[in-house]
Amino acid sequence: MALEILKVFAIVCVAFICGKIISKIKMPAILGWLIAGIVFGPYLVGLVDFTVIESGWYENTVSAFECCAGLMIGTEIIFRKMKSYGKQVVGIIVVQSVGTFLFVSLRFAAAFLIAGYPVWPAFIFGGISLATAPAPALSIVNEFKTKGPVTRTFIPLAAMDDVIGVIVFFPLSPSFRQR
After folding, report:
1. CA distance 71 to 159
2. pLDDT per residue over 79-88, tens digit each?
3. Measuring CA to CA, which residue among 103, 102, 107, 108 is closest to residue 121?
4. Which of 24-38, 112-126, 130-144 is least confident?
5. Helix axes 149-172, 120-128, angle to 10 degrees
6. What's phi and psi for 66, nearest 5 deg?
7. What predicted TM-score, i.e. pTM, was given to this entire model?
8. pLDDT tens figures, 8-33
């Protein structure tokens, strides 16, 4: 286990360096981090394999980092500011979420009907389609110190979109219904 932790630590250090190198060419540092993860992950070099990824300590570490990312994104949502943006932001969130869910669900439902499969998984795919990754966007916004109306509304939109995604996905999920 100590060797596995050392490998992960080494990859984090290399990712940090890759981020610095990428930022020198005016690209977001997170791109360097992602490239390092792809290269050293289980599919290319394999320095970190699936035994590490499936280990308890690794899953707990990832959960802690996800918690930190969630807290960072949550601090960007200031409901007083959201209220000042008015009905436009709420309208965008609802139309984007409902529109995405319906579009993806109906497309998969049609494909499943044609193929002779049950239709209910189409709604799970619709729920999955609502998921976004606001952490990279937040990273880029913080790194380049962007300001303006798009920046002010983008992170709250992405975060609220994820909230709606969770609200929609889990009741549709078979594992949730079995409880």
Report:
1. 11
2. 666 666 667 7
3. 108
4. 130-144
5. 150
6. -65, -40
7. 0.61
8. 899 999 999 999 999 999 899 988 99
Token pair, residue 150, equals 């798009």
pLDDT grade for 110, boundaries at 50, 70 and 90: very high
3-state SS, the chain, equals CHHHHHHHHHHHHHHHHHHHHHHHCCCCHHHHHHHHHHHHCCCCCCCCCHHHHCCHHHHHHHHHHHHHHHHHHHHHCCHHHHHHHCHHHHHHHHHHHHHHHHHHHHHHHHHHHHHCCCCHHHHHHHHHCCCCCHHHHHHHHHHHCCCCHHHHHHHHHHHHHHHHHHHHHHHHCHHHHCC
Report CA dihedral (33, 38, 44, 48) to the nearest 10 degrees.
70
Using the structure block, give the residue that is written with the tokens 């983008």: 154
pLDDT mean across residues, the chain: 83
How far apart are the C-alpha atoms of 123 and 147, rounded to whole Å? 37
Written as six digits, the tokens of 125 are: 């795919």
12: number of Cβ within 10 Å? 14
